[in-house]
User: Fold this.
Amino acid sequence: MNLILLGAPGAGKGTQAEVICDHLHIPAVSTGNILREAMKNGTALGVKAKSFVDAGQLVPDQIVIEIIQERLAQPDCASGFILDGFPRTVPQAEALDQIGVRIDKVIEIYVPDEKIEQRLSGRRVCPDCGASYHVDYKPTATEGVCDKCGAAVVQRKDDHPDTIRDRLRVYHEQTEPLKDYYLKTGKLVTVEGQEEVSDTTRLTLQALEA
Ligand code: ADP
Ligand code: ZN
Assistant:
């Protein structure tokens, strides 16, 4: 099963990607996590990406398309994958088609903008393993400590209020047109993001069966 998770920043794509990953035993591929890892390690890719990511802007298509092409060629993606955060522009979606990547389903997680701002400002992430939390909605078992690997969780630089608004604008302008793109292929299913993570999970798993 080759899946795409679509939705605004903070809609909960990463959280649901982890759930589907455990459920279907296919890897979740997050371009955001790959970019942050590269930035942390100061690789050439990280250096190129940093100014865009920190400003809440999109990294140029050509760079992320190359990343994805390389990642999907790894053996663990052979029996399926969940794309979280890619494609984010119509040219990126077209590139997937051109590479010959077949997509089975696109799940959009819809959350209104007001909620998004509230969620992103409370988000915390693990810099070591990429796990994502929220101070109110999905707290770590021990405050400030990643449940999965024990590292100290942090707030992302781009989760500061001004940058959040920029990211939402970028989402509406550049990513939302993808809904039409995948609606035309009949592969789009929309799930309404719920207050409770477990409720969204139930709806997401239902959408997978549909
Ligand atoms: P969120 O969905 O919460 O915005 P991500 O972790 O998916 O967070 O992405 C963080 C940042 O990484 C984006 O704001 C952007 O700068 C960059 N990025 C991630 N994926 C892409 C992509 N497919 N195309 C361009 N930029 C990307
Ligand atoms: Zn961790």
Remarks:
- The two ends are 13 Å apart (CA to CA).
- Residues 9-10, 31-32, 35, 52-53, 56-59, 64, 85-86, 88, 92, 158, 167 surround adenosine-5'-diphosphate (ligand 1) (CB under 6 Å).
- The longest strand covers residues 105-110.
